[in-house]
Design goal:
By secondary structure, the chain is of the alpha/beta class. 41% of the residues lie in helices and 16% in strands. The chain has helices spanning 9-20, 28-33, 35-42, 55-64, 79-90, 111-118, 141-165, 185-198, 225-234, 252-264, 278-281, 285-295, 306-311, 313-318, 367-380, 388-398, and strands at residues 46-50, 71-75, 100-104, 125-128, 170-173, 209-213, 217-218, 239-242, 246-247, 249-250, 270-274, 283-284, 299-303, 321-327, 347-349, 355-359. It is globular and about 65 Å long.
Length: 415
């Protein structure tokens, strides 16, 4: 018995609807209600998208295309994804209405990017999706430093360049739900990013309207757990999920809608979040995996041992079954559930039916600058005497809400 491979975007859409339980995008009513505001900020304007070749960045680009910007420049280090983005957009109908479309395979925090900004006409709206977004990247001090460089230091550098070049009326930079009451260092790095964006310590005199967003797992986005389901099925590998773990899910289209609304509609210093009900919208990952397998026409067979799952795959497949490895939630930084509003934070209405905002909760005064200086010094000259626990301590001084879970196990040690 063979498992069909997903090759068409329609199949992804169908699976996303299966997971989210929604045929229509959750935020479409808000999107339509604020269409005039979106048009005012996008139509005929100059737009720069950093990290725009990734799943969420490209989904946001697809949402803004119908509003016909005059300029769309997309920066991403992944030149393969950039090429694929161009092919996708050039195959559609809307792109040709954009007089100035360019893709640039640049590191957004490099001297080349600075030179580009200083030699390019100012932008009206800048959106930044560049990130190292996997919890597994906190596994050692070197990977952790790279995460902090991308998610915090380069973000501060880029914000300074925007201030110095007077580029942009609005600047959006995506955060994560893991920034609320963070238990992992990826979430803490994104909470640090929020302080970079909103504390005023990086660009105190900037006239930019700066916003962000925290949202749920984006179903079947690149590198996500659900994306791994498709890839594992294509390769005839067992599926794997952590036990008793719940997550919110949104589709790629919904992610694009949130990000575009946050970019042009959200109030300054606010973090847009979905209006979800944890009692109904939090989904158990094991049940999600089982639903996906049944959509493929196979019955899930729960395994608790990696070797059992690997060795029994062919025999199970011949019986119309498929191995689903369920593991303990015992790797560092893994949280059993998601939340969007952290301790001490408040959610506020922003005139939208399905979206709220989190008011920025400031860090201790000067803590953002101290943290940036420490990390930048480490990046310039790594000190072998500084370990992961030292960085955790630095982060805790900036983010008192950090409750890092260290178990000695990481996701690279799991299937």
């Amino acid at each position: 018995m063979q498992v069909d491979c997903l090759k068409e975007s329609l199949s992804i859409d169908r699976l996303s609807s299966l997971v989210t339980g929604r045929e229509k995008a959750q935020f479409s009513s808000d999107f339509e209600a604020h269409r005039d505001v979106i048009a005012t900020n996008i139509t005929g304007k100059r737009i720069l998208v950093i990290g725009g070749a990734g799943s969420i960045g490209s989904a946001t680009i697809r949402e803004l295309l119908p509003f016909s910007p005059a300029t769309l420049h997309v920066v991403d280090q992944n030149e393969n994804n950039l090429a694929e983005l161009v092919r996708d957009l050039r195959s559609g109908e809307k792109l040709m209405s954009i007089p100035d479309f360019r893709t640039l395979p640049l590191d957004f925090g490099s001297p080349i990017m600075e030179a580009f900004l200083r030699n390019t006409e100012q932008y009206d709206v800048i959106m930044n999706f560049a990130a190292i977004k996997h919890v597994r990247s906190e596994k050692d001090v070197f990977s952790l430093l790279q995460m902090l460089d991308t998610n915090v230091v380069k973000q501060a550098r880029f914000l300074r360049w925007l201030f110095e070049t007077h580029s942009g009326a609005r600047y959006f930079c995506v955060s994560t739900d893991k920034a609320a009451n963070p238990v992992n260092l990826m979430g803490a790095s994104k909470r640090s990013l929020e302080h970079v964006l909103f504390s005023g310590e990086v660009s105190p005199s900037s006239s930019l309207t700066v916003t962000s967003a925290r949202f749920a797992n984006v179903a079947f986005s690149d590198g996500s757990l659900l994306d791994s389901f498709i890839k594992r099925l294509q390769k005839h590998q067992p599926l794997a999920v952590p036990k008793n773990t719940k997550r919110y899910f949104i589709s790629l289209k919904e992610a694009g809608q949130i990000c575009l609304l946050a970019s042009v509609r959200a109030p300054a210093k606010s973090i847009l979040i979905p209006r979800f009900d944890p009692s109904t919208d939090l989904l158990d990952l094991e049940l999600v995996a089982k639903a996906v397998l049944r959509q493929y026409g196979v019955e899930p067979q729960v395994c608790l041992d990696e070797e059992e799952a690997r060795l029994n795959l062919s025999a199970l497949l011949n019986k119309g079954q498929y191995p689903l490895l369920v593991t303990p939630l015992d790797t560092s930084g893994e949280k059993p559930y998601e939340e969007f509003v952290g301790d001490g934070e408040t959610s506020v209405e922003v005139g939208m039916t399905n979206l709220l905002a989190v008011d920025y909760l400031a860090a201790p005064k000067g803590a953002c600058t101290i943290f940036l200086n420490r990390v930048e010094a480490m990046l310039m000259k790594p000190d072998s005497a500084v370990g992961k626990q030292d960085i955790v301590r630095w982060l805790s001084e900036l983010i008192p809400q950090l409750q890092h879970i260290e178990t000695g196990k990481n996701l690279d040690q799991r299937m």
